[in-house]
């Protein structure tokens, strides 16, 4: 008997469920994010955030990205993208990456040239992102303050 694939839904973050995002991030990431981060996730129009629900109601992943304009270039910077360990390899991370790399009504007037992020050196996420066309561009020594290795790798993906 074949197992029916379970539904993965992407939902918006609100002041009602931002606490769930806080718990998810605390579980998934070795670094913590402060109150200002979560306030921005809910209120700042330059932030792009989606929650991933598995089977309709279980929050199992999320992505938080931010629109950035630097040196005449417009980019999306992925601040966090994570899925609970038990729910990895089910296509949830892929759905979140595809969402960020897709088009967004809130930025329809922007010409977004690339998506980029920092990943801790040696992290499995380096392999994960390479599957979606992200390329390792530079190393940033001492990027992380409280975790080892402290080096981050910058990954970039050009958008058409």
From TrEMBL:
InterPro entries: Acyl_CoA_acyltransferase, GNAT_dom, N-term/lysine_N-AcTrnsfr. GO terms for molecular function: acyltransferase activity, transferring groups other than amino-acyl groups. It comes from the Eukaryota. Residues 8-160 form the N-acetyltransferase domain. GO terms for cellular component: NatA complex. Pfam families: Acetyltransf_1 (PF00583). Keywords: Acyltransferase, Transferase. One of its GO terms (biological process) is mitotic sister chromatid cohesion. Gene3D superfamilies: 3.40.630.30. This is N-acetyltransferase domain-containing protein. It comes from Vannella robusta.
């Amino acid at each position: 008997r074949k197992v029916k694939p379970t539904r993965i839904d992407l939902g918006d973050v609100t002041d009602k469920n931002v606490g769930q995002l806080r718990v998810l991030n605390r579980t998934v990431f070795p670094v913590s994010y402060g109150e200002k981060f979560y306030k921005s996730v809910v209120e700042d129009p330059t932030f792009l955030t989606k929650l991933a629900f598995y089977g309709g109601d279980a929050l199992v992943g999320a992505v938080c990205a931010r629109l950035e304009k630097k040196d005449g270039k417009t980019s999306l910077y992925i601040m966090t993208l994570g899925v609970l360990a038990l729910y990895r390899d089910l296509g949830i991370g892929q759905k979140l990456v595809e969402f960020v790399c897709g088009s967004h009504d809130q930025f329809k007037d922007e010409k977004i040239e690339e998506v980029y992020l920092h990943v801790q050196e040696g992290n499995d996420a380096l392999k994960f992102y390479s599957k979606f066309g992200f390329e390792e561009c530079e190393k940033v020594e001492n990027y992380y303050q409280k975790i080892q290795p402290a080096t981050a790798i910058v990954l970039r993906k050009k958008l058409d």
